Amino acid sequence: MRVVHVGSEVFPFSRTGGLGDVLAALPAVQARLGAEVAVVSPWYAGLGGEPGEVWRGDVPGVGPVRVGELREGDVRFLFVGMAEFERPGLYHPDDVWRFCAFGRAVLPVLQALEITPDVLHGHDWQAGLVVAHARLTGWRTAFTIHNLQYQGRWNLGEARGWTGLPDWAFGQDGVEFYGDLNLMKAGLTFADHVTTVSPTYAQEITTPQYGEGLDGLLVRLSLEGRLSGIINGLDQERWDPRHDPDILPYTDPAGKAANTAALRAEFRLDDLPILGTVSRLADQKGMDLLIEALPDLVGDWNVVVLGGGDPLLTAALQGWALHPRVAFTQGMNEPLAHRIYAGADAFAMPSRFEPCGLSQMISMRYGTLPVVRETGGLADTVPHDVGFRFGDATPQALAAACGKARAAFDDPEGWRERMARGMELDFSWDGPARQYLALYTHLQPQE
């Protein structure tokens, strides 16, 4: 099985979030299972690595392109360099234009390198145009939605010439979306099969509440058997409390206590249990719900928050950090994230929607019990006998679930049993990687 994954970022070379983690872990496991795997991503300025150049040439409609290669284990990482990606940083306001250029360059690059995959697998809207061109070339294609909220839209009149697509592709059954080019819709429309990163999210996005305007198309894909959900895995070597260099390693619930004591000392907290959160400060993540619930929470919990994003949410948390039971660190700090996962007693994820989520998996692996909204991947991964789930996206529902967790904490034996069950859960990539390989073998190209 020859597989080419295409995405906008890949850890450790380029990363802003979970997509980069997926494009590191999934290809590696698929290669271990016997597939021949390559990953294609932009060659950003400041890329975390020094690719060796393997090809240089002019791509019609794009211009000069160079390709670099790095190998990690049995996976080839190919980086497509062009003028559009020579500025600092990964993402910019004109990304639709930039990723149209990338989308037109990928297939000519693969053909120049004599790479003909059995399946081209695109990830999120930045790869939507690649999937469209692959379909027009006759290749089998899969497309994964990591977050439907981000779609890659631009005024169609201006963007039409950027894509290299034939005229017939610009109708309502193609890439047009309310007068815009929509690169997410390009991936959905042209892929032989569409997946998303949890079974529950695959169901949710067929509804107006979660479908982001694309629910009609997604309903049709579901009825045709072309939409499914495969839960993401977790890099269990990177997130392993037994060998984590950023914490005091431990193997069982009893060993966690030293990390809790260290986190308590780091932030000068009192003896109440610790509720932690590591998150983007965004509406999707429900951080406003957590802030509104703080007056109820600080009576039972110390609250430790790490994250960055929305300035209003940031300012609110900075204000709350004056309270002796609230600690807030702005930005992302990976060693501190590890210390929070290891040291907190419970972990809050009040997401309005969550395609998959990794924090709940990490927290359970570290014996930190999640308090989560019952949506998307949170509903699929947090067992009732481990964590605490709530339905309504309100501060009252979050506070009530935290109240249940606090009552459970007062039963030390029952709490330890929940911790032990969580730490034993298997979130490895082996199962999802096998599911994707099985899916590839059954892909039927559209007529």
TrEMBL record:
Pfam family, one: Glyco_trans_1_4
Residue ranges constituting the Starch synthase catalytic domain according to the UniProt record: 2-218
Catalyzed reactions: [(1->4)-alpha-D-glucosyl](n) + ADP-alpha-D-glucose = [(1->4)-alpha-D-glucosyl](n+1) + ADP + H(+)
Keywords: Glycogen biosynthesis, Glycosyltransferase, Transferase
Name of the featured protein: Glycogen synthase
Job of this protein: Synthesizes alpha-1,4-glucan chains using ADP-glucose.
Top-rank lineage group of the source organism: Bacteria
Binding residues for ADP-alpha-D-glucose: 15
Organism: Deinococcus aetherius
Family designation: Belongs to the glycosyltransferase 1 family. Bacterial/plant glycogen synthase subfamily.
Gene symbol of the encoding locus: glgA
Enzyme class: transferase
Enzyme Commission no: 2.4.1.21
Pathway: Glycan biosynthesis; glycogen biosynthesis
Entries under InterPro entries matching the protein: GS/SS, Starch_synth_cat_dom
